[in-house]
Design brief:
Elements: H1 10-36, E1 64-66, E2 71-73, E3 82-85, H2 87-93, H3 98-101, E4 108-112, E5 119-123, E6 132-136, E7 139-141, E8 158-165, E9 178-184, E10 197-206, E11 211-223, E12 226-236, E13 240-241, E14 247-248, E15 254-267, E16 270-286, E17 299-315, E18 324-339, E19 359-380, E20 384-405, H4 408-414, E21 426-441, E22 444-459, H5 463-468, E23 475-490, E24 499-511, H6 515-519, E25 548-561, E26 569-583, E27 589-591, E28 597-599, E29 602-616, E30 619-633, E31 638-640, E32 648-658, E33 661-670, E34 673-680, E35 683-690, E36 693-705, E37 708-715, E38 723-725, E39 732-735, E40 740-748
Parallel strand pairs: 6-9
Antiparallel strand pairs: 1-2, 3-8, 4-5, 6-7, 8-9, 10-11, 10-40, 11-12, 12-15, 13-14, 15-16, 16-17, 17-18, 18-19, 19-20, 20-21, 21-22, 22-23, 23-24, 24-25, 25-26, 26-29, 27-28, 29-30, 30-31, 30-32, 32-33, 33-36, 34-35, 36-37, 37-40, 38-39
Membrane topology: Multi-pass membrane protein
Keywords: Cell outer membrane, Membrane, Receptor, TonB box, Transmembrane, Transmembrane beta strand, Transport
Subcellular location: Cell outer membrane
């Protein structure tokens, strides 16, 4: 049996890390020589002026910059639907997954779960993996597999997570819902003033599933021109326990993550950063991990290896025309599903007549990315200013899929040379450019934007022969233009210590069909002759598809003050309303009664989002609320938009009880939501409701010394039984985990 070559394995990752270190050493040597011959060199030459030593471990007040006039809270963007989860938030929450880290962001929900491989993001009711883009250190991730989540990242490696709701000009296709931007840690974020080297060891235990986690980190700045960090994390657990003591089968975790990050500063205006992130996971998992009832198709022995590396160049000279950033990198995801006879309906038990043997599915995704951007301050004077933001992007996503049975005769008959027509291989690539000027006149800001994408999708493998015999194109090309406009008006004068801003944003986005959708042949194709008599003879849809598009309109008001009503309360709040129209739903491609091939499905969304952060002396708090409603036309019937999450209220309150003790409590209330209970395909959908729920969490942090800290975290303290949102077809979700008590011990040097 021919086994396809594996992707980048652990040994390859180690070799890559060695190559990176050697290359950076070569860069560092001349820079060091320059440093020795330079007088009066400052102690810190980082490009970003906000680079500073990490706060002492016991400091837990919100990360805001305070002046006599204004505050800058990095958590809430005051004119756009962008929220940032900071280092402090991640330290306090200690999330087990990236999904846990962003649950409290308005209009964000998690579909599927509680297994990490069964989770996907839901932003404003866009619930498919292809509707929410994920980037790690600037590199997009792009894994797609039937009924499986596609985000593999250990939160212990992260410095911050930015959540963009709705398409932004830099995010491109596949971000109708939004974009998750994860940034990994740096040594400069952890070192104390005057410290050159440091180390951290963290150990955790969770009682719900007997999870043991450990993390080891070493970091340093041996010289002012180099920053090095390495982190190793290991997470092992048994199956999750649901309220009532029921075990969630096949939910154990066995993952290993690594991060190597090196930054070099050849001069005060140049920063070169290399980041290598790897993730490995293996174990028994449901084949349909994101389904409302995972395990319907049985279990698989699943192995995942994911690696992302990026090279980032920042050039910021003392020149108003140049603020340049270049990101180049690659991402690799390798998945192997082993299904023994009888483990799944996909591979039934052996019979006296036929034994297929073990089934092996291989998926490999390779992403190549280049992102160039520059921001220029074209005009600057006291009355008005003009900035220009320009960018050029290239992305290529190559997908390789193969299926083999141990019974080679059976395998070659139904899957010749590993080709599975229902999961075709192929490549999707694009080149895009964008420009976004920003004109500020007094208190008014105007920010139009334009983006143009040039897309190409290529079939590969056995699909080429299927298309050739019907003289059908194996390459599909199209262009897509997207426009945006942002308006903001400051109601208070610039010399005020408060900011009250009205704003409105308009943005267009699109989602191209997947390789699967373009080139699938078989039961998953929407162009089967039974349903589409006027469709292609190959029953492969190909260029019948057009991109799915969206138009988003937002309006809102934000307020910031360092002294609320003259007190010491620092407050940032924002209220946002949005309306989104999605057209040409990919799922609505069909032949109508007149025999025409149409794609006329649409969705409508209306929503409101509120978020606020507060700090007052030793107290701090955060509140978010979101409500979304909508309707859907699938080409045949009008139905409720069943992918939107329930209305959600999140409240977090905390206090520094002592110089070394911090405590917080959080409350989440999610209202009932509409779910699909029956129907689909040619059968009309039937609907019901999924009950709402309330959950309480709490945590306390004690740092007896500056080198030692302990956290006690309680999740679902009331052991409430409730269901998560299903991640497939708007169905009801799985039962959530029961009460979980976690203990974390941290030691730093």
């Amino acid at each position: 049996m021919q086994i396809p070559p594996a992707g980048i394995r652990l040994l390859d990752a180690r070799r890559l890390m060695i190559i990176v270190l050697v290359a950076l050493n070569a860069l560092y040597a001349p820079a060091h020589a320059e440093l020795l011959n330079t007088e009066n060199t400052t102690a810190d030459t980082t490009v970003n002026s906000n680079k500073k030593a990490a706060p002492v471990p016991e400091q837990t007040l919100p990360e805001v910059s305070v002046s006599a006039r204004r505050i800058e809270d990095e958590r809430i963007d005051t004119t756009r639907a962008i929220t940032t989860i900071t280092t402090e938030d991640l330290e306090r929450l200690q999330p087990a997954t990236l999904f846990d880290a962003i649950r409290d962001v308005p209009s964000v929900a998690i579909n599927g779960g509680p297994r990490p491989s069964g989770m996907s993001f839901n932003i404003r009711g866009y619930a498919d993996n292809e509707d929410v883009a994920v980037k790690v250190d600037g590199i997009p991730k792009g894994f797609e597999k039937y009924r499986m989540g596609g985000t593999f990242l250990e939160p212990e490696l992260l410095k911050s997570v930015e959540v963009q709701r709705g398409p932004q000009i830099t995010s491109g296709s596949g971000s109708l819902g939004g974009t998750i931007i994860a940034t990994t840690k740096d040594a400069a974020d952890l070192l104390q003033p005057g410290q050159r080297y440091g180390a951290r060891a963290k150990f955790g235990y969770a009682n719900n599933n007997d999870e043991y986690s450990r993390s080891y980190m070493v970091y340093g700045r041996p010289d002012d021109r180099i920053d090095i960090l390495f982190n190793y994390s290991n997470r092992q657990s048994n199956d999750i326990m649901q309220p009532g003591g029921t075990k969630l089968e096949s939910s154990a975790i066995s993952s290993i993550s690594k991060l190597l990050k090196v930054s070099v500063f050849p001069s005060e205006s140049v920063q070169l950063t290399t980041s290598v992130v790897s993730f490995e996971d293996s174990g028994l998992q449901p084949y349909d991990a994101t389904g409302g009832q995972p395990g319907t198709f049985g279990n698989v022995i699943r192995s995942i290896e994911d690696l992302t590396w990026s090279e980032t160049l920042q050039y910021r000279p003392d020149n108003r025309w140049v603020d340049f950033k270049a990101i180049f990198g690659k991402g690799y995801t390798d998945l192997h599903d082993l299904i023994r006879p009888g483990m799944s309906s996909i591979n039934p038990l052996c019979t006296p007549i036929l034994c297929r043997g073990n089934l092996n599915d291989y998926y490999r995704y390779e992403t190549t990315n280049l992102d160039l951007s520059n921001r220029s301050r074209v005009i600057e004077n006291k009355d008005w200013s003009l900035e220009l933001f320009l960018g050029l992007q290239y992305n290529k996503n190559k997908r390789e899929v193969s299926r083999y049975f141990d019974n080679t005769a059976y395998s070659q008959t139904f899957y010749p040379d590993g080709f599975n027509a229902s999961a075709p291989p192929g490549t999707k690539s694009y080149v895009a450019y964008y420009l976004q000027p920003k004109l500020t006149v007094g208190r008014l800001s105007i920010m139009p934007g334009f983006r143009k994408d040039f897309y190409q999708v290529d079939a590969a493998g056995g699909t080429l022969a299927l298309l050739e015999q019907y003289d059908q194109a194996a390459t599909i090309k199209f262009r897509q233009e997207s426009y945006s406009l942002g308006l903001a008006y400051a109601l208070l004068p610039q010399n005020s210590n408060q900011q009250l801003t009205l704003y409105s944003n308009y943005g267009q986005g699109f989602r191209p069909p997947l390789v699967d959708e373009y080139f699938t042949q078989g039961v998953f194709s929407r162009c089967l002759s039974f349903f589409m008599s006027n469709g292609p003879d190959s029953q492969i849809c190909g260029d019948l598809y057009r991109p799915q598009t969206s138009e988003s309109t937002e309006a809102g008001i934000s307020y910031q003050t360092p002294r609320l009503f003259g007190s010491d309360i620092q407050l940032t709040s924002k209220l946002n309303f949005f309306h989104i129209r999605t057209s040409h739903l990919l799922t609505s491609l069909r032949q109508n009664d007149a025999g025409e091939i149409v794609q006329d499905g649409w969705e409508r969304r209306n929503g409101v989002e509120f978020e606020s952060t507060m700090s007052a002396g030793k107290l701090y708090g955060r509140v978010s609320y979101s409500r979304i409603s909508g309707a859907l036309f699938d080409g045949k019937e009008y139905v409720p938009l069943y992918t939107v999450p329930g209305n959600a209220l999140n409240i977090t309150l905390g206090a520094n009880l002592h110089a070394r003790v911090d405590a917080n409590i959080s409350y989440r209330r999610v209202a009932q939501r509409t779910v699909v209970t029956a129907g689909g395909g040619s059968i009309p959908l039937e609907f019901g409701t999924q009950d709402g729920y309330e959950v309480f969490n709490a945590g306390i942090h004690w740092a007896p010394t500056s080198h030692m800290g302990f956290r006690l975290i309680g999740e679902n303290l009331a052991n409430k039984e409730y269901r998560l949102d299903g991640a497939f077809g708007g169905t009801i979700g799985n039962v959530a985990p029961g009460r979980n008590i976690r203990i974390v011990a941290e030691f730093t040097y």
